[in-house]
Amino acid sequence: MGGTKKVTAAKQDKTQSSKDSKDSKKGRKDKGESGPRKAEVTVVVNEKEAMKIIQNSKVVTVHDLARQTGVKISAANAFLIDSTKKGLVKRVGGYSGHHIYQAVSS
């Protein structure tokens, strides 16, 4: 014959009054608005270093480039896509977002 413990009248009054005082505070912030805003961080791949890595290897993936240059995968991916548009590298294989890139021979 279990169940929850019966709360005394005194405890009910205390919990009710503490809830009322919390809700009635003015100037209360929403959960998402508290704390200072974080600054945006922009990571740029060193183009000379990245092109040297690409030209010295037969093929390179986004993960290889990110690891060797010390940047995030998203930064390396953005660099490779931009370089493809500029004609510095070409996509030679891969599937489903895991592409393989190669330097364009001059």
Describe the structure.
This protein has 106 residues and is an alpha+beta fold. It has a domain at 47-103: Winged helix-like DNA-binding domain superfamily/Winged helix DNA-binding domain (Arc Repressor Mutant, subunit A). It is 44% helix and 14% strand. The protein is built from four helices and three strands. The chain has helices spanning 9-23, 47-56, 62-69, 73-86; strands at 60-61, 89-95, 98-103. It has a three-stranded antiparallel sheet with strand order 1-3-2. A hairpin with a 2-residue loop joins strand 2 and strand 3. Helix 3 (62-69) packs across helix 4. The longest helix has 15 residues, at 9-23. The N and C termini lie far apart (85 Å).
Q: Can you give the helix content as a percent range?
A: 40-55%
Nearest-integer average pLDDT: 81
What is the assembly state of the chains in this entry? Answer: single chain
Main sheet: strands, sense, barrel: 3 strands, antiparallel
The assigned structural class equals alpha+beta
Radius of gyration: 29 Å
Instruction: Output the helix-strand order.
Output: HHEHHEE
Spatial order of the strands in the main sheet? 1-3-2
CATH homologous superfamily title of the domain at 47-103: Winged helix-like DNA-binding domain superfamily/Winged helix DNA-binding domain
Distance separating the two termini? 85 Å
Apparent shape: elongated
Return the CATH topology of the domain at 47-103.
Answer: Arc Repressor Mutant, subunit A
In terms of DSSP E residues, the strand content is 5-15%
